[in-house]
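User: Small ask, check this?
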Amino acid sequence: MLTLAQAGALLGVSPATLRSQVRNGRLRATLVGKTWVVTPREVERYRAESLGRPGRHAASSRSMT
């Protein structure tokens, strides 16, 4: 089991972002005491489904001149 801080470090996102994803049902986690934990398998599923999507980069959406 991984805490959201550990999972965030692996994914390159903040624990706050992952807590938001848990609230929105995009990341399955279990509350153990006051700490959210996720399985490594769930982290990989989330990475493949949520972080693998191409998105618009801020620099490419505006002129740099």
Remarks:
- The CA atoms of residues 7 and 43 lie 7 Å apart.
